[in-house]
Write a structure and sequence with these properties.
Layout lengths: L1 H28 L5 E10 L1 H12 L2 E7 L8 H4 L3 E9 H11 L3 E6 L2 E6 L12 E10 L1 H9 L8 E9 L6 H9 L2 E9 H12 L3 E7 L9 E8 L6 H20 L7 H9 L6 H101 L1
Parallel strand pairs: 2-5, 2-9, 7-10
Antiparallel strand pairs: 1-3, 4-5, 6-8, 9-10
């Protein structure tokens, strides 16, 4: 009996832990609680704001707005723009702030997919509020799933086109595109709204898919409706990484100019900065790296020029040294010739002196002989 109670308690504890862990996991996975460091929209519409949130927070969304009879977004709605900057807020707080600045919209969350809609569509006759009796597909691709939605009996009289388009600068590889187009999945929904069906489709397609809806609901007359499945190609790098990279490039550029390096990549830097508005952070970083490469190239060229000038200067000094040596050698040769001439003059003088000395000696001998002969002559005569 005691063992049975212990086992029962143990089972209860395990179940409680599993449930609590599951609830924690659910809480952690709730997109509304996801924190966004920085969110900004400049002179944009609600559509722009929701798309920005999709980029910065990797948020899947469904966006609905009115259109005129040409199937283009209603101009009076699209002309309303706003600017907003938010920091360190979760997705829920950001959405609430967006609704405050444009209260013509409201938002709902459906299993981590955010639906943003005009407040005028809360009636049950609105096409995406209609209940779909059955939406069931087995092993269908994305195109087949969307096609099945297009021909639902509850919608076929209104929805005339469902298209897929992609936004973002990052190009999808051929292999990735093929894998997505060939991937199959199953959906089985009963008595769900058309909106819930769309949410389920993009949830199956993947976290980088969203949808937008164009439709006319202000009159009872027939106006075709369009649904666009959006494939968002997010940047690999974050906004923070892009800011750090572009700041490093700008600092390097300022330093290069202060050092007198001849360079002019300001245009590339400004181009990179402008791409922040497109959330294309990978290309922002690419431009920043290009700026730094240009600066490094200019530094190398400047160093080569300095080295060349030093070599020229050293060669000039060497040539001047050689010339000076040649001049010194020439001077020495001239002096040597002068010394030789002086030596020759001295030799001549020595010869003259020796010749004169010899002559004097001979004259002395002759005079001696003459005097001796005269003495002998006078002696004998006596």
């Amino acid at each position: 009996m005691k063992i049975s109670k212990i086992v029962s308690v143990a089972i209860l504890v395990v179940v409680s832990l599993i449930c609590s862990n599951y609830s924690f996991a659910e809480e952690e996975e709730n997109i509304l609680d996801k924190n966004i460091d920085f969110f900004e929209v400049k002179n944009g519409t609600m559509d722009d704001a929701v798309r920005e949130l999709s980029y910065t927070g990797n948020v899947q969304y469904g966006f609905e707005y009115l259109s005129d009879e040409t199937l283009m977004p209603n101009e009076s709605w699209q002309k309303v723009t706003f600017s907003i900057t938010l920091e360190n807020m979760n997705v829920r707080e950001i959405l609430n702030n967006l609704i405050e600045v444009d209260n013509r919209y409201y938002w709902e969350e459906d299993n981590n997919i955010i639906n943003v809609m005009p407040v005028t569509i809360k009636n049950t006759t609105y096409v995406l509020n209609r209940k779909v009796a059955n939406y069931s597909i087995v092993n269908k691709t994305q195109d087949q799933a969307i096609g099945h939605f297009l021909y639902l009996p509850e919608l076929s009289s209104n929805v005339t086109n469902v298209s897929i388009f992609r936004f973002g600068k990052q190009l999808m590889s051929v292999d990735r595109a093929k894998e997505i187009s060939e991937r199959t999945f199953n959906i089985n929904l009963q008595n769900a709204t058309a909106r819930e069906v769309l949410n389920t489709i993009i949830r199956q397609l993947g976290s980088d898919y969203c949808w937008s809806f164009y439709g006319e609901i202000t009159t009872d007359k027939f106006v075709p409706l369009q649904v666009f499945i959006c494939h968002r190609n997010p940047s690999v790098h974050s906004r923070t990484e892009a800011i750090e990279s572009i700041t490093e490039a700008e600092n390097a550029l300022n330093k290069a100019e202060s050092l007198g390096i001849i360079t002019n990549p300001w245009e590339e830097l400004e181009t990179g900065k402008n791409l922040f508005n497109d959330r294309d952070y990978d290309t922002v970083i690419w431009y920043a790296e290009e700026v730094k490469k240009i600066i490094e190239y200019e530094k190398e060229e400047m160093n080569k020029a300095v080295e060349y000038e030093q070599e020229v200067e050293e060669n000039t000094e060497l040539k001047q040294g050689i010339k000076n040596l040649k001049d010194q050698v020439s001077n020495l040769e001239t002096k040597n010739i002068e010394l030789q001439d002086q030596t020759s003059d001295l030799n001549s003088k020595i010869l003259d002196l020796e010749s004169a000395k010899t002559t004097q000696t001979m004259m002395g001998l002759i005079i001696g002989l003459v005097i001796g002969g005269l003495i002998v002559f006078f002696i004998r005569k006596k």
